[in-house]
Design brief:
It is built from 11 helices and 12 strands. The chain is α/β, with parallel strands linked by helices. The strands form 5 sheets. A 4-stranded parallel β-sheet has the order 3-4-5-10, with helices on both faces. A two-stranded parallel ribbon has the order 1-2. Bound molecules: nicotinamide-adenine-dinucleotide (NAD).
Length: 304
């Protein structure tokens, strides 16, 4: 959003502040190009006209965060389906381009070393509420592709892999902000399971660059494209990097998944994006490595 304003665009942000905060827009609060609307997307009466006159819609509003999803699967499903349907419905009338943010969660329990956009998906059973997020986002993907195929909406689906940045909240289970605040407070860093599960962390600025490039790429319409970094780190190693970069005296506590979430909770051993399609379409590859990302989230300067 700051990037669009800096490029001279007018930006309307619609947010119900369920997990977000206007504080995140502090640097552009009084920018003349910014309009803020505090509402759920689907309930806002101005949605149709705004989408019709927009150059693009970046649709990020969703129920997010593992803890929230596990506690409130019905809310997760309803929000993720309803808001995307409202956006795509409006865009279908005006043919406004849409960039929809889906998630690496749709790859489910696949144990492939790289997740590619054409892969089969292996989502867990509906009795485990954590899968409600992946399934609702996957249905959004189907809907987006149907709107592309049937109504000609230029929509691109971006599957995001662990995007992190300084304004991300740890309140709803996001790992890096949780680790950073625990390390700052000298409290133990809670690592779920054996900590050998790996993730690839991508700096939010790199994700924004990729989203903007996908919007500007006509060949991306109707496509699913991974966005993330492909450098893997285990959660245990990540905890150690956080402790060392912050010079913290914190220890690491291993916590069984059942104690953190729900009985039978299923986690993915690894989640690493195949980024070749992103690079082919946009010429872009995310750059920042893990230490840089950790330091940025912690508000420290770049790694030496
Ligand atoms: N951060 C990641 O690693 C990641 C990974 C995969 C997918 N995503 C997707 O990226 C998008 C942004 O996620 P984020 O991580 O920045 O989380 P976030 O909580 O910062 O962003 C979601 C925003 O949507 C708002 N919102 C929620 N429901 C709404 C509704 N009904 N109407 C209006 N606003 C609503 C929230 O208040 C919040 O500001 C989401 O669609 C998420 O599924 C993020």
């Amino acid at each position: 959003m700051e990037r669009l304003l800096a490029a001279g665009e007018q930006v309307v942000v619609i947010d119900d502040l369920s997990t977000g905060s206007w504080d995140n827009l502090a640097s552009v609060r009084s920018h003349p190009g910014l309009e803020r609307v505090e509402s759920t997307v689907s309930a806002w009466a101005g949605l149709g006209d705004t989408v019709a006159s927009a150059k693009a819609v970046f649709h990020l509003a969703a129920a997010v965060g593992v803890e929230l999803v596990v506690q409130a699967p019905r809310r997760t499903i309803e929000i993720n389906l309803r808001e995307t349907e409202a956006v795509l419905d409006a865009a279908s009338k005006s043919k406004t381009p849409v960039v929809f943010t889906s998630t690496s969660e749709v790859y489910g329990k696949s144990d492939k070393p790289w997740f590619s956009e054409e892969d089969d998906l292996l989502i867990g059973p509906p009795t485990l509420s954590r899968w409600s997020y992946a399934c609702s986002k996957l249905l959004d993907e189907f809907l987006a592709l149907a709107c592309h195929g049937e109504q000609g909406v230029p929509v691109v689906i971006a599957r995001l892999f662990n995007i992190v940045g300084p304004r991300q909240s740890g309140r709803h289970g996001m790992v890096l902000p949780r680790f950073v605040s625990a390390a700052r407070a000298g409290q133990p860093l809670r690592v779920f399971g054996d900590g050998r599960q790996t993730r690839c962390l991508c700096r939010v600025q790199d994700c924004v660059e990729a989203l903007l490039r996908l919007w500007a790429c006509p060949a991306a319409a109707g496509q699913i494209v991974n966005i993330g970094h492909d450098e893997e780190i285990s959660i245990l190693d990540l905890a150690q990097v956080v402790i060392s970069e912050l010079g913290s005296a914190s220890t690491i506590d291993r916590v069984p998944y059942e104690a953190a979430y729900q009985s039978g909770f299923q986690d993915m051993p690894r989640r690493r994006p195949d980024l070749r399609k992103l690079e082919r379409l946009t010429g872009f590859r995310p750059r920042a490595g893990v230490r840089d990302v950790v330091r940025q989230v912690a508000g420290l300067g770049p790694a030496a």
